[in-house]
Amino acid sequence: MLNGYMDLTIEEVETPVAGEDEIVFKVMACGICPSDVRRWNGNRNVTHKRILGHESVGEVTELGDKVEGLEVGDRIVRDWRNTCGTCYYCRKGLYNFCLEAETLSRLGFLGGFCEYSKVKDPVYRKIPDNVSYDEAAFTEPLACCINGIHQSNIEMGDDVAIIGCGPIGLQLLQLSKARGARIIAIDLKEDRIQLARKLGAHDIINARDQNTIQTVKDLTEGRGVNASIVAVGGAIPIKNGLDILDYEGTLNIFAGTYPKTEIPIDPNPPHYKHLKITGSHDFTPHDFSTALKLIEKGIVDVKSLISHRLPLEETQKGFEIVSKQEGLKVIIKPHQ
Ligand SMILES: [Zn+2]
Ligand SMILES: [Zn+2]
Predict the structure, then answer these.
(1) What are the strands of the beta sheet with 245-253, ordered from one edge?
(2) Which residues, in sequence order, are CB contacts of 32 under 8 Å at separation 6+?
(3) Reduced to 3 states, what is the DSSP secondary structure of residue 274?
(4) Can you give the residue range of the structural domain that contains 273?
């Protein structure tokens, strides 16, 4: 339970009961997302006590009367984003901006760092037999990355820079590679860059001791990259992402930046070079389905991104690990 600033405690709460269109599940795994950490460390406001965690998977233990096509014992992954399908943006196909998503998703939402949680029918997917709970817990972050790729205008053979090789950057890397891109992975931490190499990066840059802009230019015959995806918040990586673009290149500001900042930009390069500056956030229901499929078919390796599996009692420790970037993906496992 998040009580306030950096204050997570274990509390006994009522086991959730399934309403007529709800499914109760025993949480088997829930990933810690940087957005959870931001609520914990005060970068984002939390106005009430709550159980965090939106990347949860588990085993169905109770079904509401109206739920069909699911049985007790089934393995599911919860899609926390519930969209209405009828608002202006849903009808335009822009489910990311559903006007009702906030309200619908909050209604009766229980977090994932707990023993039992629930989901509204039909906002879940069944987990394929060959996918473990821990892997399925990546469906949500991977769906966000798929959405990010849609915004990044990557063509086969393009040069793509992934700036920031945390769990998100390493998923974006694999997706860009699946699109046929040549990948340049950039980070400050050597272990992350080495894993980027293992997961398919063609070139790696340690920005601590190499000049990012010059090295990228050297690696691309002086042109720069067609797309740079910035998977870390902060003015410097975003500025670098813009400065390494070739003509017609796209900068995708994938990560939020906290605390808030401003970046001075010379407007001439975007003007003269046809540069595009975009961002991406959340995902559509189809991205969510696609994410699970990419895990099932082995197109994206998420297993290699797990650095810690912790019991519920060590959730606070998990948050500390994520905020200090001491590992990669931390998964909380309320039941072993
Ligand atoms: Zn997340
Ligand atoms: Zn809508």
Answers:
(1) 203-206, 182-187, 159-163, 225-230, 245-253, 276-279
(2) 53, 55, 315, 318, 319, 322, 329, 330, 331, 332
(3) coil
(4) 152-279
Q: Could you say which ligand is closest to the alpha carbon of residue 78?
A: 1
pLDDT digits (tens, 9 = 90+) for 100-109: 988 888 776 7
For residues 181 and 264, membership in a common domain is answered with yes
Using the mean position of ligand 2's atoms as its centre, give its distance from the Cα of residue 282 in Å.
Answer: 14
Query: What does 295-324 look like in DSSP terms, one character per residue?
Result: HHTTSS--GGGEEEEEEGGGHHHHHHHHHT
Q: Say how far apart CA 160 and CA 203 lie, in whole Å.
A: 10
User: Which candidate, 78, 142, 136, 144, places its Cα nearest to that of 105?
Assistant: 78
Please give the distance, rounded to the nearest whole angstrom, from the Cα atom of residue 54 to the centre of ligand 1: 6
Q: Domain of 225: which CATH number?
A: 3.40.50.720
Tell me: the pLDDT tens digits for 6-41? 889 999 999 999 999 999 999 999 999 998 998 888
pTM: 0.96
Give the CATH number of the domain where residue 83 resides. Answer: 3.90.180.10
CA of 33 to the centre of ligand 1 (A): 5
What pLDDT, in 10s, does the model give residues 240-294? 999 999 999 999 999 999 888 999 999 999 999 999 999 999 999 999 999 999 9
Residue type at position 206 = N
Total structural domains within the chain? 2
